[in-house]
From TrEMBL:
GO terms classed as biological process: proteolysis
Keywords: Hydrolase, Membrane, Protease, Transmembrane, Transmembrane helix
Pfam families the record matches: PrsW-protease (PF13367)
InterPro entries: PrsW
Species whose genome carries this gene: Nocardioides cavernaquae
Gene Ontology terms, MF aspect: peptidase activity
Transmembrane feature ranges: 16-38, 44-66, 75-95, 107-133, 145-165, 185-208, 220-237, 249-271
This protein's name: Protease PrsW
Amino acid sequence: MPATVSHRRQTRDSMVFTIIVALIAAAAALPIMLVVALTGGGPVVVVAGLFALVPVGPVVGAYLWLDRYEPEPKVLLGLGLAWGAFVATFVAVIAQELGSAFLSLSTTASATIVAPLTEELTKGLFLVLLLVWRRHELDGVLDGIVYAGMVGVGFAFTENILYLASAYNGLDGAPGGMLGLTTTFVVRCIASPFAHPFFTAFIGIGVGMAIASRSKSARFLLPVGGYLMAVLCHAAWNASATYGGGAVFFGAYVVVMLPAFVLMVAFAIWIRGREHSILTTALHDAARRGFLPAADIPHVVDLAGRRAARRHAHLAGGRHARAAMRDYQQAAVELGYLHHRFLRGTAPRHFAERGQAFVSRMHELRPGLVFPPDVSLHQSAHRSGGLTA
């Protein structure tokens, strides 16, 4: 299949996915905003929203830092936030209300059983949609963690508004007023803003491992296992907050939750560190096959090298030259991860067409690129060979 046809099909599928998920999120946003409005008066909701917004920037920034090697499409990351904030919260609220009504569950039972099961299921559904519909966007565990984090941040934002507004109004045993709001803010937004992203990260890890697995059974069992781990951690966290009072919650936070979160962060950073090696190995093999000049690789795999190449291009050719360098680097990165999956035997459908589309894009951009001096000496040796697959 010609690369242009494959590219058009990918663009069409991406647009369809984006439109459908955006419409679902918009439809869920209306009832969620009504629920938020009914939780407290207008001024209370605004104040709660501002307080809930405080941890969003730093946590999202941390996930974007993890995502720097192969930045995911900003549209998809935004859809993940919207899914968590509106769709996951809406479905979870409905499921919990139905569970309480038809199963006659107490508040504590709902918090420790129904909430973890429904919330992790609705959050994880976004990753399942990516796995089924946009599988080519998922290259491994790191991508799964990043998308799970975005969904978790969105969910936590909306949930925090509800909790903060309730605390201000003195509901659920809170002291009320600014004291109640501040106490809840410290517990939920300062001490544990990572809770929901942390739980859902297990689903992201399961999905990422499934992508990299050659076994059909593992591709099914790994996401399921990730979901069960997410539910278990979520249930344990809610149980510590529900039973035994503040002392038990604080003890669980210090002894269990905080160390587990630190381990998850260390794991994510370790996975991120492997990206350099994975990308380097894959691109050198791609270069041996004639897909790109080997001299370009340092300006693709090294983050500092990428920035230096874009800076030099901008100084030499202006904004358009910088944009061309950025597009070339992005196509090379995508080619590298796709080639890595090909070498592992886990390439997605239509990988050859996708790879040819990246190579064609690189071939189109390459003649106009302005590399830093340490690469320019090698350019003439590679121009004659071109970038044909």
